[in-house]
Write a structure and sequence with these properties.
Shape: globular
Largest sheet: 5 strands, antiparallel
Radius of gyration: 21 Å
Number of helices: 3
Strand content: 15-25%
Distance between the termini: 68 Å
């Protein structure tokens, strides 16, 4: 009798581990496919990290910690843009990095702020949330770093929603122009 119970427990453990590995494999494939279809320069993609799948409870519900991450990213991007444009008094339309960050920040603002301001009740389990940090080349010709948040269905078959958060840091003080001529007050970066 003990042998049957132990054998049953072993089978249950193997089945659970296999389903988790299978889910993570499906998510990884879905993430790679989605990036290849949505990036301006998919061949430039370098995925730096992929989070463990986390339960999602609707498309509008974010934990306080997640809201903090999103707001900090937008705050950092805004500070970077203000620094690079002299508080919008001297914008350089050839500054590829500033244009890339501005595009990403506008998309985040348009798509998320309505969901982040105020309380969104936690809904029923709707699928999975996965965060992926990556580097890619923008349509302006510069490399940028970002974190893409995916909302994936319960069966890991499709991306329901996604958004990118810019990650600014060491690049914020360097000027990146989209042409090879030096601009006044800026330098080119590879």
């Amino acid at each position: 009798m003990k042998t049957i119970k132990l054998f049953s427990l072993a089978i249950l453990c193997v089945a659970t581990m296999t389903s988790c590995t299978s889910r993570e494999g499906k998510i990884q494939s879905l993430v790679n496919e989605h990036f290849s279809q949505t990036l301006e320069e998919p061949t430039s993609l370098k995925i730096e990290s992929v989070s463990q799948p986390d339960s999602a409870f609707g498309l509008r519900y974010f934990t306080p910690k997640e809201k903090g991450i999103i707001f900090k990213s937008v705050k950092d991007a805004t500070e970077c843009l203000m620094e690079r444009t002299n508080y919008m008094m001297d914008p350089n339309m050839n500054d590829a990095y500033a244009m890339t960050i501005a595009d990403m920040e506008m998309q985040v603002s348009a798509n998320l702020y309505g969901n982040l301001l105020g309380e969104s009740p936690k809904g029923a389990f709707s699928g999975w949330k996965v965060r992926t940090s990556y580097t890619a080349k923008s349509k302006y010709g510069c490399y940028y770093k970002a974190q893409r948040w995916f909302f994936i269905d319960k069966d890991c078959k499709s991306v329901i929603k996604y958004f990118d958060l810019p990650i600014v840091g060491s690049q914020s003080s360097k000027k990146v122009t989209s042409n090879s001529k030096k601009q006044k007050g800026s330098t080119n970066q590879k």
